[in-house]
Amino acid sequence: MESDCRIPMACLRPKVLALHALFWGLVSLRVFGAALLSEEKTTATKAAAVPCWQVEEFVVASDCTLCADFQSILIPACSVTGYVEKINCTKSSKDEYKSCRSAMMEEHIFWKFEGAMLGLTVIFALLVVARQRSLDRQASEKVRRQIESI
Fold first, then answer.
1. In the structure, what pLDDT confidence band is assigned to residue 145 with cuts at 50, 70 and 90?
2. Which single residue of 30, 51, 83, 97 could bond 77 by disulfide (Cβ 3.0 to 4.6 Å)?
3. What dihedral do alpha carbons 98, 104, 105, 110 form, nearest 10°?
4. How confident is the model over 33-70, as pLDDT tens digits?
5. Residues 96/76, Cβ–Cβ less than 8 Å
6. What's the DSSP call for residue 7?
7. DSSP assignment of 31-48, as one string?
8. Which intervals of the chain form a coiled coil (predicted)?
């Protein structure tokens, strides 16, 4: 009589289980330790270079506009979305640039998504029709063979 157990009995020995627990414990310790160390490093570097608009209140000096070629090189915020708005921080009176998402860009992304979904709908509808025709042909062929064998 065969057992329904899919785990070999050799894997359930106490020594093997202890070795597996030790191995996976060390792996998880290393992964979580690396994650904690990288988190400490990033928080230390972020504290030094935090933009003023993340820490204090600000006023938008100019609306979200497309970055020009020379602005993309000079202003690091342009590289994120390609659009930037000028910010005045209230406490420190600094003028900084903040990356933003324009309504035109959002609309463009929306219509691209809609087009992709429409295209996928057409493709899968054609696949369903082709599969249905194939199954219908197979069924009629089966019925024809059954009738011929009588």
1. very high
2. 97
3. 140
4. 766 666 655 554 554 578 888 888 888 888 888 888 88
5. no
6. S
7. HHHHHHHHHHHHHHHHHH
8. none
